[in-house]
Amino acid sequence: MTIKDEFLSMSMEEKIQLQLERLQSTLNRAYRNVPFHKKRIKDMGMDISEVNGLSDLARLPFMERHHISDNYPYDLFAVPLRDIVRIHTAPGTTRKPTVSGYTPQDLSVWQNILRRALLASNISPHDILQITLNPGLANWGRDYKSGAEAIEASVIPHTPMSVEKKAMVLMDYRTSVLITTPASAMQLADYVRKEEINTTAMALKTLILVGEAIDSETRRLLEEQLGVTVWTHYGLSEVPGPAIAFECETHEGLHVNEDHFLPEIVDPVSGMVLPEDRFGELVLTTLTTRAFPLIRFKTGDRARIFRATCSCGRQLRRIEWTGERVDDLLNIDGVKIHTRQMQLAIESLLGFSSDASTFHVRRTDGRQYIEVFIPVNDTIFSDEIKELEALIHRAETNLLENIGIPVVIRLKENRTV
């Protein structure tokens, strides 16, 4: 299926002009409709009419994750609620989640973004896609479904399944493309190996991994055990969605959809913009998002922008995404959890302080979860054990419902932690 991509055929001058026009439009809309952006820009003594080139972006203030929670739920929306057709929530940095919204135009933009990324993985109308993501990435499942349908590929609706059910659907439905997280893919690979399933009898040929970066050894293992080609996509679980950057057939970095996002790499401490090929914190500015514009949003992800162009011919800059963080957020299957948010939630649920708690990302049978160790005093331990166990169980259930990630809470006497 041949689909013309006008941005990729533009000259460099045309691309820069389009990016600048879209940046100016975004800044005008944010300044006019979002008090948060207007105040911060005015506080810096700037006039948005002074942004006459892409390099002027560096003069604007950063937007951080806590700003989204601070303006809960709708204060960062740049359009009236009547124009919003989808509302998405994700864990924030406090008790309040992050909330983002989408207009019909935003959803159309995301469909085109996903279509471009899927076409880069050689997906065609002949493919059958199976999307398996955890509840925290349900919004991504809808976006991938929409992008695949734009290519006229067949899509199996996104539904959480056990690994046994996933394998059964893969075999019986003749799935050719699986979109999932690295942890879920590893779980499937382990199951296929233990059950001695013949992968040559499977139609699966393409594995698209989202949510977390992978190393070369993990890529090799998955390709060998599942008989697939692995591709990776980069996105944000908070805002605005998946495939902000995607791999092409060279598998050497991820192309940024620069007609929709302006990437920068900055020093995470000083905030200074770093030259290409230097690692730092990835900062993104949206160019086409109407409902929820991001202006210099600090992602917390460590990355670098390649100086050299890609041999695939796409005139989209590439990033190398390491999967490392420059902050203390935990990344579990693509859902980012702030440790302070976890502490506040646990304190509220259990009724005592958890400031000295430690958090660990664990993996069991391919599944990822957060293990929390809470040091407690003798008074708490002297309470009825059954009551404590019931309280912990309720807290674990509540956290799963609110962040979409399994949590195991363990109480330890101070001297044992």
Termini Cα gap: 59 Å
**Order of helices and strands, N to C?**
HHHEEHEHEHEHEHEEEEEEEEEHEEHHE
- Low-pLDDT stretches are none
Fold-level CATH name of the largest domain: Rossmann fold
Question: How many domains in all?
Answer: 2
The second-level CATH architecture of the largest domain is 3-Layer(aba) Sandwich
CATH-level-4 superfamily name of the largest domain = ANL, N-terminal domain
CATH class of the largest domain: Alpha Beta
Number of strands: 18
For the biggest sheet, the summary is:
11 strands, mixed
* Average predicted local confidence, pLDDT: 90
The helix fraction, in percent, is 25-40%
Widest sheet: strand ordering: 4-3-5-6-7-8-9-13-12-11-10
Quaternary form = single chain
General shape: globular
Number of helices: 11
What Rg do the Cα atoms give?
22 Å
- Sheet-strand content, in percent, reads 15-25%
Structural class: alpha/beta
In short, what is this structure?
By secondary structure, the chain is α/β, with parallel strands linked by helices. 33% of the residues lie in helices and 24% in strands.
Can you put this structure into words, describing what you see?
The protein has helices at residues 12-33, 35-43, 65-70, 104-120, 138-151, 163-172, 182-194, 216-226, 339-350, 378-381, 385-403, and strands at residues 86-90, 98-102, 128-132, 154-156, 177-180, 206-209, 229-234, 245-247, 254-256, 261-266, 280-286, 297-305, 318-325, 329-332, 335-338, 358-364, 367-376, 407-413. With 417 residues, the protein is α/β, with parallel strands linked by helices. It has two domains: 1-326, 3-Layer(aba) Sandwich (Rossmann fold); 335-416, Cation efflux protein, cytoplasmic domain (Alpha-Beta Plaits). The strands form four sheets. An eleven-stranded mixed beta sheet has the order 4-3-5-6-7-8-9-13-12-11-10, sandwiched between helices. Strands 16-17-18 form a three-stranded mixed beta sheet. Strands 1-2 form a two-stranded antiparallel ribbon. Helix 4 (104-120) crosses helix 5 (138-151), helix 6 packs across helix 7 and helix 9 crosses helix 11 (385-403). It starts with 11 loop residues before the first helix and ends with a strand. The model has no long low-confidence stretch (mean pLDDT 90).
